[in-house]
């Protein structure tokens, strides 16, 4: 019913918003990725509340691939950084873990919905179809704020882990020579690149036509 849909819409938007805000202030690597998962589950429920069930399932599939990659990369980093999960003790890990850095940033970009990566095909479609529904400016604004929160905590995680100053923790560079650790990461990185269009063609045999004003069309990319 419309009442259930409205209730689910409100809960999903609040879930996306709260998990995004908490992730920005979190320092535990695994908790940040777990909160990110919660945010994306909110996005799936948001899609269901609009009646876009197939699209929610599509986002579930693409999200599973790049989020599995994120968790595996986090595991390698924790193992290589002396079993610590605190990102404040990381810093400058791109020098010791160049391959994991590339793969994790690929997963982060896919999570943010950067064009032509796996997350873009499902996330952008949900956002654009949501823009066609007349839920009012508040829901649209909250949705775009939640999108920008995803980008914020992803950029913060990348900066503190790979780019920022060294935090003083121990670091073992040997991890990347262990193929049982790095092998699955490389395979999932490849799927994060190509799975978006492939799953899109499998799920939606006919192309989805969306007509939006220019400012809404560019909105998702801008945020």
TrEMBL record:
GO CC annotation, single: mitochondrial inner membrane
Annotated ranges, domain NADH dehydrogenase subunit 5 C-terminal: 153-222
Major subcellular location class: mitochondrion
Catalysed reactions listed for this entry: a ubiquinone + NADH + 5 H(+)(in) = a ubiquinol + NAD(+) + 4 H(+)(out)
All copies of domain NADH:quinone oxidoreductase/Mrp antiporter transmembrane, residue ranges: 3-144
Sequence intervals crossing the membrane: 6-25, 32-50, 56-78, 99-121, 133-159, 204-222
Broad enzyme group: translocase
Single GO molecular function: NADH dehydrogenase activity
EC numbers: 7.1.1.2
Cellular compartments annotated: Mitochondrion inner membrane
UniProt membrane topology term: Multi-pass membrane protein
Superkingdom per UniProt: Eukaryota
GO biological process annotation, one example: ATP synthesis coupled electron transport
Alphabetized UniProt keyword annotations: Electron transport, Membrane, Mitochondrion, Mitochondrion inner membrane, NAD, Respiratory chain, Translocase, Transmembrane, Transmembrane helix, Transport, Ubiquinone
Chain's role: Core subunit of the mitochondrial membrane respiratory chain NADH dehydrogenase (Complex I) that is believed to belong to the minimal assembly required for catalysis. Complex I functions in the transfer of electrons from NADH to the respiratory chain. The immediate electron acceptor for the enzyme is believed to be ubiquinone.
Name of the molecule in the record: NADH-ubiquinone oxidoreductase chain 5
Source organism of the structure: Daphnia pulicaria
Higher taxonomy: Eukaryota, Metazoa, Ecdysozoa, Arthropoda, Crustacea
């Amino acid at each position: 019913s419309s009442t259930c849909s409205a209730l689910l819409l409100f809960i999903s938007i609040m879930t996306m918003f709260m998990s995004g805000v908490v992730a920005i202030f979190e320092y535990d690597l695994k908790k940040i990725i777990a909160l990110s998962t919660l945010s994306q589950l909110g996005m799936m429920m948001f899609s269901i509340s609009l009646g876009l069930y197939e699209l929610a399932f599509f986002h579930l599939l693409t999200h599973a691939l790049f989020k599995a990659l994120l968790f595996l990369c986090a595991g390698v980093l924790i193992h290589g950084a002396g079993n610590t999960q605190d990102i404040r003790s990381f810093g400058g890990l791109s020098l010791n873990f160049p391959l994991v850095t590339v793969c994790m940033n690929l997963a982060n970009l896919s999570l943010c919905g950067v064009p032509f990566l796996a997350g873009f095909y499902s996330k952008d479609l949900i956002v654009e179809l949501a823009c066609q529904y007349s839920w009012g400016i508040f829901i649209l604004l909250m949705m775009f704020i939640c999108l920008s929160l995803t980008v914020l905590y992803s950029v913060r995680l990348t900066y503190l882990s790979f780019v920022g100053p060294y935090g003083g923790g121990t670091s073992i560079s040997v991890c990347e020579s262990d193929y049982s650790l790095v092998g699955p990461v490389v395979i999932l990185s490849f799927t994060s690149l190509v799975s978006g269009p492939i799953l899109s063609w499998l799920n939606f045999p006919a192309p989805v036509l969306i007509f939006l004003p220019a400012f809404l069309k560019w909105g998702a990319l801008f945020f």
